[in-house]
């Protein structure tokens, strides 16, 4: 029986005596197509001749592939009977180019494996660094629906043609399979999008974990934005006959940081972006450092080199991102360059709170006598005038009546101050300083 001809994606070997050459072909096909099939027990012309099989044959092939193809891949290895002859089929997929075989790099050309020159290898590495991996990697599940994404398009005033929608939005790879971007935008997926809240300034004590994933990324992004808007409290202060209002944090800066994290993260690495809320700040972390052709100065100026260009295009069509590049400069104008911690494999954006929420202070300092600057100010006022009233504290500090009462309650719970006597003729005692 004849099973066809060798191509850029298919290689035939007579026996596992040619295992080294076969592994070279696998790496070569991965570098060209991100995919390849190798048969043992088949002649170069496609005639099936069979292959001797032992108890350890498949295991030895698997071990050799693991040892000699780098970065490591996980092959699918099958024993098949074709015309009652033993044939071994090996199928590989990978997106982390370039792949080496026995320390050398090859590229498939027709049915040949050609070793790459240093220049060609550098070109491959540069191309890989800027390629749109999301559109190349197949989705782990191929039964997907996109009703929520289509609704988002209609809501944005765009026309949805059911017959061409998936092709027009780039939801399939070159093999006609749903890609990783499709998985992100599908109605259902297993991608976790979390907002995690901690009691203090570190991750020692977790308060709650809100899960917004498992669905279309557009929906998840909106849910996170809605939640963060709901906790963005306004502090009202009265002083010098003026009323001032201040939000806990700048929502526009958070929105830019969060949407950028979702658009530019390296989703193929398996670490979704996340939001961490501490007592004094918010952190938004995403996977992947800056693109190889973008330096920090360019980044700070708002110059964009999309990691996931087709995903960014979809977000642009839906009105989630603009091409003006104002997002990063906006964050810097509010919080400075120190808001960005740019690492080799991660980008962390820190948005500090404009004031310390009193419930956060209580959580962080539970069972301790430590106090923050705001509380210390109130203690200082009391030390200077033990008979000071709440109204006078409001006037002196510029804080609201309710906020002063919360601070006093916190100080009493920490046994920093005590109240002796009634409201009218009583006085404050500073127990600890």
Automatic annotation (TrEMBL):
SUPFAM superfamilies: Winged helix' DNA-binding domain (SSF46785)
Coiled-coil segments on the chain, per record: none
One Pfam family named in its UniProt record: HATPase_c_4
InterPro entries: RecG_C_sf, Schlafen_AlbA_2_dom, Schlafen_AlbA_2_dom_sf, WH-like_DNA-bd_sf, WH_DNA-bd_sf
Residue ranges of every copy of the Schlafen AlbA-2 domain listed in the record: 6-116
PANTHER family for the chain: GLPR-RELATED TRANSCRIPTIONAL REPRESSOR, SCHLAFEN ALBA-2 DOMAIN-CONTAINING PROTEIN
Protein name: Predicted transcriptional regulator, contains HTH domain
Organism whose genome encodes this protein: Ruminobacter amylophilus
């Amino acid at each position: 029986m004849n099973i066809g001809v060798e191509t850029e994606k298919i290689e035939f070997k007579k026996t596992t005596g040619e295992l080294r050459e076969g592994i070279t072909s696998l790496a070569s096909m991965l570098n060209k197509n991100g995919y390849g099939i190798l048969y043992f027990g088949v002649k170069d012309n496609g005639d099936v001749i069979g292959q001797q099989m032992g108890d350890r044959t498949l295991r030895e092939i698997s071990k050799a592939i693991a040892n000699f193809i780098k970065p490591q891949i996980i092959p699918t290895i099958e024993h098949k009977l074709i015309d009652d002859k033993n044939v071994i089929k090996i199928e590989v997929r990978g997106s982390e180019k370039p792949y080496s075989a026995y320390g050398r790099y090859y590229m498939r050309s027709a049915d040949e494996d050609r070793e790459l020159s240093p220049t060609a290898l550098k070109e491959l590495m540069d191309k890989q660094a800027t390629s749109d991996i999301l559109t190349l990697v197949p989705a782990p599940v191929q039964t997907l629906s996109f009703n929520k994404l289509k609704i988002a398009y209609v809501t944005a005033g765009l026309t949805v043609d059911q017959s061409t929608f998936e092709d027009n939005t780039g939801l399939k790879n070159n093999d006609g399979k749903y890609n990783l971007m499709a998985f992100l935008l599908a109605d259902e997926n297993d991608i976790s999008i979390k907002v995690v809240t901690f009691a203090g300034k570190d991750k020692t004590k977790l308060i709650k974990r809100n899960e917004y994933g498992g669905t279309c990324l557009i929906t998840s992004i909106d849910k996170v934005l809605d939640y963060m808007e709901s906790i963005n409290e306004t502090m009202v202060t009265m002083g010098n006959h003026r009323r001032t209002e201040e939000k806990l944090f700048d929502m526009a800066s958070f929105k830019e940081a969060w949407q950028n994290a979702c658009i530019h993260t390296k989703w193929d690495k398996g670490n979704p972006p996340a939001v961490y809320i501490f007592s004094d700040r918010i952190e938004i972390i995403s996977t992947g450092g800056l693109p190889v052709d973008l330096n920090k100065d360019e980044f700070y100026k708002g110059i964009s080199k999309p990691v996931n260009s087709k995903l960014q295009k979809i977000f642009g069509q839906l009105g989630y991102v603009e091409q003006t590049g104002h997002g990063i400069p906006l964050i810097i104008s509010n919080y400075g360059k120190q808001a960005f911690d740019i690492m080799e494999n991660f980008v962390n954006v820190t948005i500090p709170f404009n004031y310390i929420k009193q419930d956060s202070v209580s959580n962080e300092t539970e069972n301790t006598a430590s106090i923050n600057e705001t509380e210390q100010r109130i203690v200082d006022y009391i030390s200077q005038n033990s008979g000071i009233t709440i109204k006078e504290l409001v006037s002196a500090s510029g804080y609201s009546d309710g906020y002063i009462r919360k601070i006093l309650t916190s100080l009493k719970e920490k046994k920093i101050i005590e109240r002796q006597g009634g409201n009218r003729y009583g006085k404050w005692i500073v127990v600890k300083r």
